[in-house]
Amino acid sequence: IQHTEEFFIKPESRVAQLDTSQWPLLLKNFDKLNVMTAHYTPLPSGANPLKREISDYVRSGFINLDKPSNPSSHEVVAWIRRILRVEKTGHSGTLDPKVTGCLIVCIERATRLVKSQQSAGKEYVGIVRLHNAIESEAQLARAIETLTGALFQRPPLIAAVKRQLRVRTIYESKLVEYDPERRLGIFWVSCEAGTYIRTLCVHLGLLLGVGGQMQELRRVRSGILGEKDNMVTMHDVLDAQWQYDNNKDDSYLRRVILPLEKLLTSHKRLVMKDSAVNAICYGAKIMLPGVLRYEDGIELNQEIVVITTKGEAICLAIALMTTAVISTCDHGIVAKIKRVIMERDTYPRKWGLGPKASQKKMMIQKGLLDKHGKPNESTPDSWKKEYVDYRDASKKEAAAVAQAVTEVERAPKRKRESESESDEAVTPPSPATPPPEELSKKEKKKKKKEKKAKEAAESRGEQIEVTSETSTKKKKKKKQKEVEESSE
Question: 65, 104 in Cβ contact below 8 A?
């Protein structure tokens, strides 16, 4: 049904015929979203993610691949790039050559989501071999459950990264089965991205006091996608492409490749008007007047997905307003763009079509404004008074900032500096000494010391004569004293 029917949020309050919990991808339960406004002008551009043209469908999709044993993750991704004849592919986190299981391969536009997928949590099923017998299965189960929470890990001896000590969190782990004869244990682990299960098995052996090593490993979940979420093999991808090339049947290719929107179904949603879509693709701020619907539970600085009325992902964004604030405001910036996903000019440009912008274009055509939209000799006075040119305003702001900086520089100096300057004004320099600008650093330091000594003497009620003679004169005085003492 989802592949055949038309699905998009219509600009009317008619109840949907199909239950919205059965709607595809990001349009699921759209009628439960909060409504900002129900009216907008639908544009024919864009398409439901499941109904895109096959070329666009492939270029904005991903494959939940069951990685085979022996080839590396990069080799597998390169093979898929060659099979599908695309330019760019990426994956959701490296698997060692011998490890099998869930590897999300993103194609072309979907590679923009790779970073968020790499940092998502992972789940594994592994086999650990113990080097000696243990008392009971319960002992192994306790040891596995002990190794949860934040753990120190160093990558294995043969690793593609620098062997630095790092902290990785293990959310949950449990023993599935244990064979005491062969000393093999099957366990399941849910952990943070970048956890080394091989190192975990070594730690397990140390904890039991018998030693242990990892025998086999399979990733059963990566982010929100697991083994049961349309996982395919390399042969399936090859067959689907062959079927399309030879029989022009794209149904198998559509079954193997999934739209990138499926990776974003766990994010909070913000539905935008069709007229605002292309502006966001060009980097415009996500403003409140362009919002149609918004989801409950949006928190400040939370990562959200901005979508069209047809359910296409426009971009990932960081929320700058909570749901409560959005419901009480009618203007302002809702979110800032984190990563634009949609291609530019998928939807037509709809900015510069307001009443003021249209009037300005007419005046440029008639010659009442110059070609840059700035006033000239024939510009009416009413336009000069009423119209605010934000380009000029920004220049004025910059000038004001520069002026403020110069004023700060000219501001009165600190207390100590002003005191020292007043002292210098009271005691003019002797003709023998050079002007204050030419004084070296040493002489300045000496003056400071003399000043401090003078202040200390005054506080004690003593009078000390401070001499400001050069070092050569001091030496002469010392010599004279020595001569007098010797003569006495």
Answer: yes
* Class of residue 86 by CB neighbours under 10 A (exposed 0-12, middle 13-18, buried 19+): middle
Calculate the average pLDDT of the chain.
81
- Greatest Cα pair distance, the chain, in angstroms, is 125
Q: CA-to-CA distance for 98 and 73, rounded, in angstroms? A: 10
Residue 390, pLDDT score: 56
Structural contact between residues 24 and 7, judged by C-beta atoms closer than 8 angstroms: yes
Whether pLDDT at 126 is above 90:
yes
- Res 234: pLDDT: 92
- Which residues lie below 8 Å from residue 63, measured CB to CB, with a gap of 6+? 80, 104, 105, 107, 232, 237, 256, 257, 258
Give 74's contacts (C-beta < 8 A, 6+ positions apart).
94
For residues 143 and 477, the model is more confident at 143
Q: Do 67 and 101 contact (CB within 8 A), yes or no?
A: yes
Residue 382 amino acid letter = S
Query: How many angstroms separate the CA atoms of 387 and 469, rounded?
Result: 70
Residue listed under structure tokens 């809702």: 334
- What is the CB neighbour count within 10 angstroms for residue 142? 13
The whole-angstrom separation of Cα 334 and Cα 214 is 48
Q: Please, is 407 exposed, middle or buried when counting C-beta atoms within 10 Å of its C-beta (0-12, 13-18, 19+)?
A: exposed
- What residues are paired with 307 via a beta bridge? 271, 313
Read off the DSSP letter of residue 429: P
A 10 A CB-CB count for 62 gives 27
- 354 vs 333: CA distance, rounded Å: 19
Under a CB-based contact definition with an 8 Å cutoff, are residues 76 and 105 in contact? yes
Does pTM top 0.85 for this prediction? no
CATH of segment(s) 121-222: 3.30.2350.10
Find where tokens 């400040």 sit: 300
List the domain boundaries for the chain.
Answer: 121-222, 355-387
Residue type, 44: P
The three-class DSSP label of residue 163 is coil
pLDDT higher than threshold 90 for residue 475: no
Give CA torsion, residues 341, 241, 90, 120, to 10 deg. 80
pLDDT value of residue 31: 80
Contact call for residues 171 and 190 (beta carbons, < 8 A) = yes
**Residue scoring higher pLDDT (248 or 390):** 248
CA atoms within 13 A on the CB side of 427: 12
Separation CA 18–CA 398 (nearest Å)? 56
- Which residues are tagged catalytic? 96
- Spatial separation of the C-alpha atoms in residues 76 and 422, rounded to whole Å: 78
DSSP one-letter string for 300-332: TT-EEEEE-TTS-EEEEEEESS-HHHHHH-SSS
